[in-house]
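Appendix B. Raw example, untouched.
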Amino acid sequence: MFAVRFLKATIAMVTVLLQGRTHLNFKEFRIRGHLRFFNHILGILQLLEPQLFAQPSTVLHGIMEAYFPILPHSVIAKKPLESIITKFIQLLYQYSSHNPTQAQPLLEKHSTALNNLSQVYPDIQQLKSLLASITLTSSSKDQSGLGSAPNQAEPAMDEIPGVGGREETYSPTLAAMMGADASWDTEDVKSFAERLSQEEDSEGMAEALNELEEKSSSAVGIPQHFVAELSTQMTSCNKDCR
């Protein structure tokens, strides 16, 4: 009985402590020690497995939701975030294994973010397994709905989140992804993507990346729209671009 009360008290405390931190840009988030703090919290959550996964979804998802805003920063901070990303994916994987019915809505909600993450960290096997489970579940739902909605057209490949070319990146949810910075519309994203892909001067590229980092401080979803372009800069000879 004491163990159950302790577990609930710990989870409640963690949920509160994680709030109000991920709105910062990555540089400030790291300088203030929040990155290390979030990493330590994941270590505590791992110690609470598997009892952790028996908690109500509202409580458990409240904790995990705090980590998803960190994922887009991986495209510009792959190495510093590798440890925390790996631990978080392991937690999601264990959650999906122990309580798939409860975990699936959370995974489907963030399927695009997880798919983008797989482009930055293609070697995380547990991430591949999560994406496969999302795909299988979505396919099952589509097949079960065929009889009740015969006139519903099957979505084209480039309309499925995370599949197809760059066109799928500019989705109707762009404004929501941009957060507080409503000045960025579809054309702005396309224009900036061209700037990143065509910029040949190292100083010009560094200036563009700094501008992108500043923009993402008020709208953490922005970097997700430039995964392809930013990934190429991870091997740049210029340390400022990396």
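End of appendix B.
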